[in-house]
């Protein structure tokens, strides 16, 4: 019965494949969520099935659901299962699902390491490809570290299909594991000259991406890329290379000069728009970087502008957009060239595409002049009226203001016009930029004295018609302009025709609905108006009007006294009391007007943004000192500009110093400066302050904002002193800048320009505005090329440089390969000890050798793996394939010579990343180097000499870098020996101690062998023994033969036709110091017992004088662990397995295990090929399977230092042996 | 390239490929935001827009929007080219592709994309090579699927073929 149900449900489940699911979802549009939840339930059922096909189908559906936004993270383990299927169909689905669903936080990723490694080395290129593709999406730092070496090997795969994928994914690996960059780079560089164009382009891609982040390390590749650029016909590659040059030229101007010609040629010749666009962009970048001190390249600029014009005129919106975009880049450095295309750009303002109009607007900024400003703005105003979307309208608004206000209103000839524009802009409904308009109004009214009369009249109208603005003010920001209007009317009330009316307008009950800060300004300025009214009527016999005004205030102010806003309330009540008092005096016919006016007397002047910084520091004042002992981060300096002044006072007296480093200070200064610059109400330096500063004037300077009270506390004189000094300082600076000429010119122009203003008055009035002009003017114009002090850090390239440096900077510091520690334990241990003291003696010759070894090891290994897959016959052929450029030389020499050859290609001055070249540099630095090397690398010495010649030429430049190189060398060589180590699932580099499964096989003075045994997944009777042979001698080892005395149970797999006692030829030779790995397949029958096999390695030691025959005996230890294969298992299946009762139990206790639980688990996983099924706190279930299908289940618990392992297996003796081995593992550590 | 999204005119996501690690939540947020922005654009508008610190390049093919996010310095035109190339590949593979092809064979669409782009970079610029790789991989798959099906999924064969 139960079986029937199960069967039925299986059928039903089988019925629903991906297509059905999709169809189902489409048919259940109304109750999609419900339908999907039933689907998910079904999928959960399917995932419990043993059938991998069913699981894959389920995972496929899940991937689809994931795209629809459903959480499928719970199925991560199932995805891993499907990934590890041996069938490509399922594997493909598994990897796809993983690439879509996995992210760095997915914990099962750590289980995939071995699976991925297996797939990477699969003989089927599509398995490898699918693994690489998947890995590119979910690679984590751990995976990157563990697999970096495998992927690096694949970079030399015979199939270009794999090579190109491996090359591309290396970029992701570098990002996750920067330490891999240095060791992998030489090979990556080789790939630039790969015979396959796909691989070549992949390498260009990767290096280009790397170089864009940190160009200076890739300058040395410039000649190579230059060659590629001139020879390549592939536009994709060309674009990347040109982009790369764009990144390099800022660092090496000479390169830019060289580039111009080929680039302009390309611009002329290419028909591909993308390439043209890239060239134009790069030419622009080059010209920007060349702009100083180079003969002008007006021809190139003209060419670019011409081409861009063609783009802009094109009917294709995309080209139009990009053309405008590139144009704006030119505008920054060559405004003249762009200005001649004004017609075209104005035309674009009418384009129906908003994004194009916005780009055109950007350009307009650079092409206005005094002549055309009004015309352009008029056009923009028309657009404002037409604009439908608020975003675009707001953009227009800010652009209008930007254009008009640029360079201190340089192009405005009539400010009445500008005020009218601003007033017109206030009619925009729903704009977010009320604040901006307000600040413009304030700025203009304050700085252009002649316009005040007009401005005040306009503002009075605005106030009178405030209801028009306040319609829906709560939402939009346009009511901000009332703030400005009220302030202007109050501050310059002497210009008001009818102050009484304005006063009335400001005290309407409706005002109470405005935002608090605006009301506060209203109240404060009502008081100013009151003073004006009093002043006006003073002396008249009839004091009626004045008294009426007082009465009005007394009637209306209580409304504000009740305000919820503290600021409003405080001001209102203060002023109310004042007015009441004045009323009393008025009734006694006392003249009060002068006294009331005195409250608000004084003139306000703008301060230059840089003014603050230019205040000379008084002697004895240490700005670095903290004012208060405990230095707090939230220093109030940053908060309000006013606080700065009040705080600076006490600094004179207090001279307790706490040191703050220069950077921090600079940063703070910068922040403060920016804040001040952005604060329109921060009072800017006044040129005429000397004249104006009588004591009361200072008091009202900061009135703009809100509090009268704060500035009142500030003692007037010191502030004015500061302003005076500041002004002097600024002027000196100006002189020094030799801007005199400009200044005069502008003054003249300005003078002429102001037609609307009355003559003599404007002369005087303009002075302050003009002087401020000059101060601020410098900012936009000189910002890029040559502003004195603080502008350079803002240089875009420099900023980019700093930013992008970061990822690679790390790699520079830590070139240690991850596997290194593991090797320390085993194969490279001796060598390590050997090399360390020598390094300390700076024997770079040794280092060099070491590095060579590494390189060859890498190379050889990659070949080795290929060999494993193919028959020995093919080896020669393959070598030729992977190293075609070396084809002439013998096989051995080939390997030795390859790096130097590539080094010769590089002729650029600095070579930070090129390890090859650096090794040569190191060699060069040691005079005795050749002697050392020659006997060792006889065959390659020729190359080296060649190299050295070259090096001598470059010696000077390299010297600088040498120290650097040494550093890297060491690390590189340290890490080298273990390149070959195939390590398993190491979880975390930091917390986990390094592990290696390679153990010593045998060793003598010539050779050292380490080995690891792994089960073969495909065949239940085979295990693979990987042996790393390391040549410890100074001689050449060749004709190595590996032989084992077979037992009944275990036999070495020999090629057909070989006798049972014949040895196997090790398929490589070992130059001095080199190690390489070979794999031998053994067949085993019973796997329940560990076993030892005796064997012998025979080899010929060939030195210059002689060659001797040597042999080395060893014992291969087949542990039971080596028959286990890491197999993932999910908890349901695990539970079933335990319930089945087929398994027999055993247990083990380990005392005194002093390591974190996850280390313990990782060790078991790593050394004994288990996988964690489930882990709860300090308890974990683990699973593994033998090559013959025995299930081994462990339940590991830990408390204190005791670990108890309960184990179950269907083969008790196997279990017993495995447990013994586990015990041994932990007794060792 | 940072990521690629395919969505329908109705705003339904049809394909997503992320080349930068992001949390699911962030991905959803970005997707929603971009789908809205792109769909709101008028047909005559250019294919580029600036979004956060990235550039979005999109193109509409029939009812499907192909949308890529690239970095500031990347080339918009080549990205359009990539999109177009991908569409051509889909077209060749499915034979005048339509949205339904991608919906029902979304894994194939991914496989093609993966052969074409890797880690956000174009890995194969030759259409022929991409299709060859896909065909061969499919061949590998089909053989196995077939034998698999003949054993277990007999009832499937006709529907799929």
TrEMBL record, chain A:
Chain segments carrying region Disordered: 627-683, 723-997
Superkingdom classification of source: Eukaryota
Signal sequence annotation: none
Pfam families according to UniProt: Adaptin_N, AP3D1, Mu_AP3
Positions with biased composition (Acidic residues): 775-792
Positions with biased composition (Low complexity): 906-924
Cited SUPFAM superfamilies: ARM repeat
UniProtKB keywords: Acetylation, Coiled coil, Cytoplasm, Golgi apparatus, Membrane, Phosphoprotein, Protein transport, Repeat, Transport
InterPro entries: AP3_complex_dsu, AP3D_dom_metazoa, ARM-like, ARM-type_fold, Clathrin/coatomer_adapt-like_N, Mu_AP3
Bilayer topology term: Peripheral membrane protein
Bias-annotated ranges (Basic and acidic residues): 639-675, 724-739, 793-842, 853-865, 928-940
Location of the protein in the cell: Cytoplasm; Golgi apparatus membrane
GO biological process annotation, one example: neurotransmitter receptor transport, postsynaptic endosome to lysosome
Compositional bias per record (Basic residues), positions renumbered to this chain: 740-753, 843-852, 957-972
This protein's GO CC annotations: AP-3 adaptor complex; axon cytoplasm; endosome membrane; Golgi membrane; presynaptic endosome; terminal bouton
AP-3 complex subunit delta domain mapped to chain residues: 660-805
Described function: Part of the AP-3 complex, an adaptor-related complex which is not clathrin-associated. The complex is associated with the Golgi region as well as more peripheral structures. It facilitates the budding of vesicles from the Golgi membrane and may be directly involved in trafficking to lysosomes. Involved in process of CD8+ T-cell and NK cell degranulation. In concert with the BLOC-1 complex, AP-3 is required to target cargos into vesicles assembled at cell bodies for delivery into neurites and nerve terminals.
Family to which the UniProt record says this protein belongs: Belongs to the adaptor complexes large subunit family.
PANTHER family: AP-3 COMPLEX SUBUNIT DELTA-1 (PTHR22781:SF12), DELTA ADAPTIN-RELATED (PTHR22781)
Listed name of the protein: AP-3 complex subunit delta-1
From TrEMBL, chain B:
Ranges for domain AP complex mu/sigma subunit: 1-140
Topology class, membrane: Peripheral membrane protein
Biological process annotations from GO: intracellular protein transport
Entry GO CC: AP-1 adaptor complex; clathrin-coated pit
InterPro entries given in the database record: AP1_sigma, AP_complex_ssu, AP_mu_sigma_su, Clathrin_sm-chain_CS, Longin-like_dom_sf
Family matches, as PROSITE patterns: CLAT_ADAPTOR_S
Keyword field: Coated pit, Cytoplasmic vesicle, Golgi apparatus, Membrane, Protein transport, Transport
Domain of life: Eukaryota
Single GO molecular function: clathrin adaptor activity
Coiled-coil residue spans: none
Location of the protein in the cell: Cytoplasmic vesicle membrane; Golgi apparatus; Membrane, Clathrin-coated pit
Pfam families the UniProt entry points to: Clat_adaptor_s
Role description: Subunit of clathrin-associated adaptor protein complex 1 that plays a role in protein sorting in the late-Golgi/trans-Golgi network (TGN) and/or endosomes. The AP complexes mediate both the recruitment of clathrin to membranes and the recognition of sorting signals within the cytosolic tails of transmembrane cargo molecules.
Annotated family: Belongs to the adaptor complexes small subunit family.
PANTHER family referenced in this protein's UniProt entry, alphabetically: ADAPTOR COMPLEXES SMALL SUBUNIT FAMILY (PTHR11753)
Subunit structure: Adaptor protein complex 1 (AP-1) is a heterotetramer composed of two large adaptins (gamma-type subunit AP1G1 and beta-type subunit AP1B1), a medium adaptin (mu-type subunit AP1M1 or AP1M2) and a small adaptin (sigma-type subunit AP1S1 or AP1S2 or AP1S3). Binds to MUC1.
Name this polypeptide is given: AP complex subunit sigma
Organism from which the protein derives: Phoxinus phoxinus (Eurasian minnow)
């Amino acid at each position: 019965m139960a079986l029937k149900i199960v069967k039925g449900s299986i059928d039903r489940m089988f019925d629903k494949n991906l297509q059905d699911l999709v169809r189902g979802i489409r048919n259940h549009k109304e109750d999609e969520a419900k339908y999907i939840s039933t689907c998910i339930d079904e999928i959960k059922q399917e995932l419990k099935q043993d059938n991998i096909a069913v699981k894959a189908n389920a995972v496929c559906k899940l991937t689809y659901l994931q795209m629809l936004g459903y959480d499928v993270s719970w199925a991560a383990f199932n995805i891993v299962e499907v990934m590890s299927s041996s069938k490509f169909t399922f594997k493909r689905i598994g990897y796809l699902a993983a690439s879509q669903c996995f992210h760095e936080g997915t914990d099962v990723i750590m289980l995939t390491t071995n699976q991925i490694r297996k797939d990477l080395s699969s003989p089927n290129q599509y398995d490898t490809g699918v693994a690489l593709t998947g890995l590119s999406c979910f690679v984590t730092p751990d995976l990157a570290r563990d697999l970096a070496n495998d992927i690096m090997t694949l970079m030399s795969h015979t199939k270009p299909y794999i090579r190109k994928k491996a090359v591309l994914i290396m970029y992701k690996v570098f990002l996750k594991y920067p330490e891999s960059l240095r060791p992998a780079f030489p090979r990556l560089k080789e790939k630039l000259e790969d015979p396959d164009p796909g691989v070549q382009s992949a390498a260009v891609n990767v290096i280009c991406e790397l170089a864009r982040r940190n160009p200076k390390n890739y300058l040395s590749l410039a000649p190579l890329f230059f060659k590629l650029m001139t020879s390549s016909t592939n536009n994709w590659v060309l674009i990347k290379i040109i982009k790369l040059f764009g990144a390099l030229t800022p660092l090496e101007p000479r390169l830019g000069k060289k580039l111009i010609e080929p680039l302009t040629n390309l611009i002329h010749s290419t028909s591909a728009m993308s390439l043209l666009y890239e060239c134009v962009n790069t030419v622009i970048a080059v010209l920007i970087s060349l702009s100083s001190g180079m003969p002008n390249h007006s021809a190139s600029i003209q060419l670019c502008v011409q081409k861009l014009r063609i783009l802009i005129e094109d009917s294709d919106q995309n080209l139009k957009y990009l053309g405008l975009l590139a144009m704006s880049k030119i505008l920054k450095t060559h405004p003249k060239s762009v200005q001649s295309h004004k017609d075209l750009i104005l035309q674009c303002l009418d384009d129906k595409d908003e994004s194009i109009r916005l780009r055109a607007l950007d350009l307009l900024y650079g092409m206005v002049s005094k002549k055309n400003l009004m015309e352009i703005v008029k056009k923009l105003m028309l657009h404002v009226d037409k604009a439908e979307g608020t975003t675009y309208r707001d953009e227009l608004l800010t652009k209008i203001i930007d254009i008009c206000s640029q360079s201190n209103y340089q192009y405005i000839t009539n400010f009445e016009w500008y005020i009218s524009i601003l007033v017109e802009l206030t009619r925009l409904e729903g704009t977010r930029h009320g604040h901006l308009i307000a600040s413009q109004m304030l700025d203009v009214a304050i700085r252009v004295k002649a316009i005040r009369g007009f401005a005040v009249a306009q503002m009075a109208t605005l106030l009178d018609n405030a209801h028009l603005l306040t319609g829906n003010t709560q939402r939009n920001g346009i009511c901000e302009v009332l703030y400005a209007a009220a302030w202007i009317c109050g501050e310059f009330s002497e210009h008001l025709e009818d102050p009484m009316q304005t006063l009335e307008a400001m005290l309407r009950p409706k005002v109470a609905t405005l935002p608090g800060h605006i009301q506060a300004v209203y109240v404060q300025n009502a008081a100013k108006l009151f003073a004006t009214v009093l002043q006006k009527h003073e002396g008249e016999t009839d004091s009626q009007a004045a008294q009426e005004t007082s009465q009005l205030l007394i009637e209306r102010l209580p409304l504000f006294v009740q305000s919820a806003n503290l600021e409003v309330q405080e001001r209102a009540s203060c002023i109310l009391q004042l007015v009441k008092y004045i009323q009393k005096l008025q009734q006694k016919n006392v003249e009060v007007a002068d006294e009331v006016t005195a409250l608000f007397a004084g003139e306000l002047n703008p301060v230059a943004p840089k003014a603050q910084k230019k205040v000379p520091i008084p002697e004895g004042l240490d700005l670095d000192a903290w004012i208060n002992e405990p230095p707090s981060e939230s220093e109030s300096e940053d908060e309000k500009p006013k606080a700065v002044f009040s705080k600076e006072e006490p600094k004179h007296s207090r001279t307790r110093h706490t040191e703050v480093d220069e950077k921090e200070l600079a940063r703070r200064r910068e922040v403060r400066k920016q804040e001040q610059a952005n604060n329109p109400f921060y009072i800017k330096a006044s040129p005429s302050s000397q004249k104006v500063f009588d004591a009361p004037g200072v008091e009202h300077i900061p009135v703009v904002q809100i509090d009268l009270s704060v500035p009142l506390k500030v003692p007037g004189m010191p502030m004015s002193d500061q302003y005076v000094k500041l002004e002097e300082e600024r002027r000196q600076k100006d002189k020094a800048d030799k801007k005199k000429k400009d200044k005069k010119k502008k003054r003249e122009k300005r003078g002429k320009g102001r037609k609307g203003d009355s003559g003599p008055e404007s002369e005087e009035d303009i002075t302050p505005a003009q002087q401020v002009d000059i101060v601020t003017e410098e900012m936009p114009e000189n910002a890029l090329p040559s502003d004195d002090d603080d502008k350079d850090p803002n240089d875009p390239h420099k900023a980019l440089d700093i930013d992008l440096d970061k990822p690679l900077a790390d790699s520079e510091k830590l070139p240690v390969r991850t596997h290194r520690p593991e090797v320390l334990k085993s194969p490279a241990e001796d060598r390590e000890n050997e090399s360390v003291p020598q390094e300390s003696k700076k024997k770079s010759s040794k280092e060099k050798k070491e590095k060579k070894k590494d390189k060859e090891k890498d190379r050889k290994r990659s070949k080795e793996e290929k060999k494993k897959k193919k028959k020995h016959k093919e080896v020669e052929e393959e070598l030729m394939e992977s190293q075609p450029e070396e084809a002439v030389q013998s096989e051995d020499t080939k390997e030795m010579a390859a790096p130097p050859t590539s080094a010769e290609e590089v002729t650029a001055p600095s070579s930070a990343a090129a390890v090859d070249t650096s090794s040569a540099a190191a060699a060069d630095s040691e005079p005795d180097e050749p002697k050392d090397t020659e006997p060792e690398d006889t065959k390659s010495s020729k190359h080296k000499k060649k190299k050295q010649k070259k090096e001598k030429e470059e010696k000077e430049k390299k010297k600088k870098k040498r120290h650097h190189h040494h550093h890297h060398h060491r690390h590189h060589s340290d890490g080298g020996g273990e390149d070959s180590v195939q390590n398993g699932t190491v979880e975390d580099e930091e917390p986990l101690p390094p592990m290696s499964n390679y153990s010593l096989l045998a060793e003598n003075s010539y050779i050292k062998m380490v080995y690891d045994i792994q089960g073969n997944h495909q065949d239940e009777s085979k295990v693979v023994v990987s042996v790393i042979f390391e040549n410890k001698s100074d001689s050449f080892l060749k004709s190595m033969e590996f032989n084992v005395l077979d037992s009944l149970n275990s036999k070495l797999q020999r090629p057909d036709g070989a006798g049972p006692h014949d040895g196997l030829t090790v398929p490589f030779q070992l130059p001095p110091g080199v190690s390489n790995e070979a794999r031998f397949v053994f067949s085993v029958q019973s796997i329940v017992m560990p076993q030892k096999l005796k064997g012998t390695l025979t080899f010929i030691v060939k030195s210059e004088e002689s060659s001797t025959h040597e042999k080395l005996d060893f014992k291969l230890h087949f542990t039971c662990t080596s028959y286990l294969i890491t197999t993932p298992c999910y908890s349901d299946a695990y539970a079933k397995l335990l319930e089945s009762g087929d398994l027999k139990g055993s247990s083990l206790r380990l005392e005194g295990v002093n390591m974190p639980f996850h280390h313990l688990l990782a060790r078991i996983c790593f050394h004994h090929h288990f996988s964690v099924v489930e882990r709860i706190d300090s308890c974990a279930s683990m699973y593994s399977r033998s090559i013959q299908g025995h299930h081994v289940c462990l339940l590991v618990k830990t408390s204190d230092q005791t670990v108890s392992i309960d184990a179950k297996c269907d083969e008790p003796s196997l279990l017993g042996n495995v447990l013994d081995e586990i015990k041994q593992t932990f007794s060792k550590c | 390239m940072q990521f690629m999204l395919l969505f329908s005119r109705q705003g339904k996501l049809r394909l997503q490929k992320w080349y930068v690690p992001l949390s699911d939540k962030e991905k959803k947020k970005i997707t929603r935001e971009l789908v809205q922005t792109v769909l709101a654009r008028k047909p005559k508008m250019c294919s580029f827009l600036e979004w956060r610190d990235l550039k979005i390049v999109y193109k509409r093919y029939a009812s499907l929007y192909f949308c890529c996010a690239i970095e500031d310095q990347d080339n918009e035109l080549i990205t359009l080219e990539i999109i177009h190339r991908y569409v051509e590949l889909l077209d060749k593979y499915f034979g005048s592709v339509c949205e339904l092809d991608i919906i029902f064979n979304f894994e194939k669409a991914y496989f093609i994309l993966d052969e074409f782009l890797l880690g956000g970079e174009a890995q194969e610029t030759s259409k022929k090579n991409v299709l060859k790789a896909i065909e061969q991989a499919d061949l590998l798959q089909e053989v196995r699927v077939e034998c698999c099906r003949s054993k277990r999924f007999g009832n499937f064969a006709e529907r799929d073929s």
